[in-house]
Amino acid sequence: MPKLNVAPTKSNLLSLKRQLSFAEEGYDLLEEKRQILIFELMNRLARAQEVERLVTELLRHAHAALREATLDSGSESLERVVVAVNVSSRQTYQPRSPEGGHPELNLTDQHLMGMRIPKITVQIPPAGAPFGVGGTSASTDVAMLRFVELLPKLAELAELQNAVIRLACELRKTQRRCNALSKIFIPSYRETILYIAGTLEERERESLTILKMIRDRLV
Questions:
Q1: Residue 17's closest CA among 205, 207, 186?
Q2: Which burial class, exposed, middle or buried, applies to 29 when counting CB atoms under 10 A from its CB (0-12, 13-18, 19+)?
Q3: Any residues with CB less than 8 A from the CB of 66 and at least 6 apart, and which?
Q4: Residues 52-108: pLDDT tens digits?
Q5: Residue among 52, 40, 33, 27 nearest 166 (CA)
Q6: CA neighbor of 154 nearest in space, from 64, 22, 57
Q7: C-alpha angle 101/107/113, rounded to 5°?
Q8: What percent of the chain has pLDDT over 90?
Q9: How far apart are CA 162 and CA 31, in angstroms?
Q10: Coil, strand, or helix at residue 119?
Q11: Domains of the chain
Q12: pTM score, whole prediction
């Protein structure tokens, strides 16, 4: 590892020792952060895989109910009743309920190791018959309710996938910093400190030798 281009003086030696101590402390903190990020990443990745399997299963049941509703009422009839689905200005789908309420999407931030990770929650209003009694069958209501009940899990899956991506990016940055400290900066500091310490010791020995020769001549 190449030495730093600094003059071999006592002041530089003291300065490099302080910088080395600071770099080693920073490396320890980054390594601790890296371990926490790995734990959080693996934990959320496992949860995301489990929720994804559950979402796939719920989607299968919802689409099965939709196919049954199509067989019962026909595709044209279902297309007419989709006007019962209201789209808000935030482009969030909000199926109507008999009480007039809509599923509410809440987006907040949770903080982890200096990161901001979105937290998504969905509040579902009390269940009811989304459509009128004419033109549809009970299977249409079942299909609608199954898709509505799917929303919280979809929000949870989106939250976990977003967290996994952000944690992976932060982990890569932390790993690069750890590598830079452990493989470049810290070895360079140590080698330069050894070089300066050796140079100063050699100068001190030379000075002692010169003083001894002067003393011998004066005697």
A1: 186
A2: exposed
A3: 143, 147
A4: 999 999 999 988 888 888 777 777 766 666 665 554 434 344 444 444 456 777 888
A5: 40
A6: 57
A7: 160
A8: 43
A9: 23
A10: strand
A11: 10-214 (1.10.287.3240)
A12: 0.73
